[in-house]
Amino acid sequence: MGRVMMGVAAGVAVAACAVATVVVGRRVRSRRKWKRVVGVLRELEEACETTVGRLRQVVDAMAVEMHAGLASEGGSKLKMLLTFVDNLPTGIEKGNCYALDLGGTNFRVLRVKLGGQRSSILARDVERQPIPQHLMTSTSGDLFDFIASSLLQFVEKEENGSESSSIGRRELGFTFSFPVKQTSVSSGLLIKWTKGFAIEDMVGKDVVECLQQALTRKGLDMRVAALVNDTVGTLALGHYHDADTVAAVIIGTGTNACYMERTDAIIKCQGLLTASGGMVVNMEWGNFWSSHLPRTSYDVDLDVDSPNPNDQGFEKMISGMYLGDIVRRVILRMSQESDIFGPVSSTLLMPFILRTPLVAAMHEDDSPELTEVARIMKDIVEMPDVPLKVRKLIVKVCDVVTRRAARLAAAGIVGILKKIGRDGSGGITSGRSRSDFKMRRTVVAIEGGLYTSYRMFREYLHEALIEILGEDIAKHVILTVTEDGSGIGAALLAASHSSNNVDSVQLL
């Protein structure tokens, strides 16, 4: 009997050991899987590192590339395009001015009433119109006749039948968000169509002349006074509200920047004279590149898969169009390394399924159970059973990618300030020390949903600005949000470049 009991006990012990071995084995495997996933995060953190030293290298690289782009055509990844806008709105503008904003499958017409004082917009009227599909591939005459007819109806309705003789000639600012080679403040040749447009007879033509002819055919007494892009419009609007505004940045779905440059610094256009001694330069900074940018394997893969590989490198690291897809690619890699996410979702393989607003929602989820993260992973990515600890990991991925983007955007802004001597150093070629340089109040106008709607992005950008510049200098740099530079800004530029003003830009 004793032997039987001993045998039973031994059997139980063996079974218990076997169970324990299985349990321990599972725990070991689970830890290994978790370690692999955490390893992906650590690798990402190291690759995205943006120390102050590295950011200052990006600042220097941006300033150097700006110099190169101003020195010669094709001398830099930065195009540094001349806008021929040499004077910005100051507040003396008075009366009604108009804007046409054509940037996609819709266009807007605006009427802005100015009060003759700085930051004095008395009234604003806006109408949005869809462009019929057939006109996007028709002729330039058909497209602009349609737009001119809409403008005429808008003007007649807004002016309530007033005598045109008492109104005088109307001035129009034209925001045209397609690739254009600008030849004056009110003329530019279409390089190519994008966004679904394919009107072949217009490529190489002056877009302002096409519009102006259509306005004449419709009997509308209106002059296109300024051809601008949305970034230049943002600078105009910022300067109208605050005379210390020297640059504008758009950080939204895409990104770009422009600033006021001294005419004598634009070496590639010798003999350029302006009444103000300056000109707004459209940087097209989305195409900036430097070896100092912290690029990851996810950035490389995204670039290869994009319609424009080796192009817009800076934009692909900092703009709202791409941040969501970088996060998606990291989560996909994690889910392939381990099954702690559950089965790999086929939806997660779809590019751009995870948009940046969803990343912002997950990043800023402060609920104890991260319920918003769980909802997005279930409803959008179709991964319904993501554990809490994994949801925390996803939030961390959002944080790393967003922080890198915001800090690089801050470095880009400081690069502009360094080029024009507003970073406290006296400029890129100055030999003065920070101690003997008096910092002037400097305002940068900013538009774009990534900055205005994503709190963590905004906070990281401000934090980096202070780290790069130092607190003593940073307190003189103000980032001001503007709204509707492509509309109101264009109308303001029409007013400041009205036919009452003599052409103030000359090429000798």
From TrEMBL:
Gene Ontology CC: one annotated term: cytosol
EC number, as in UniProt: 2.7.1.-
Keyword annotations: ATP-binding, Glycolysis, Kinase, Membrane, Mitochondrion, Mitochondrion outer membrane, Nucleotide-binding, Transferase
Molecular function in Gene Ontology: ATP binding; D-glucose binding; glucokinase activity
Top-level class of the enzyme under EC nomenclature: transferase
Pathway membership: Carbohydrate degradation; glycolysis; D-glyceraldehyde 3-phosphate and glycerone phosphate from D-glucose: step 1/4; Carbohydrate metabolism; hexose metabolism
Domain Hexokinase C-terminal: 247-495
Subcellular compartments: Mitochondrion outer membrane
Biological processes, Gene Ontology terms: glycolytic process; hexose metabolic process; intracellular glucose homeostasis
Domain Hexokinase N-terminal: 41-240
Main location: mitochondrion
Family annotation (InterPro entries): ATPase_NBD, Hexokinase, Hexokinase_BS, Hexokinase_C, Hexokinase_N
Record's bilayer topology term: Single-pass membrane protein
Family: Belongs to the hexokinase family.
Record-given protein name: Phosphotransferase
Organism: Cephalotus follicularis (Albany pitcher plant)
Taxonomic lineage: Eukaryota, Viridiplantae, Streptophyta, Embryophyta, Tracheophyta
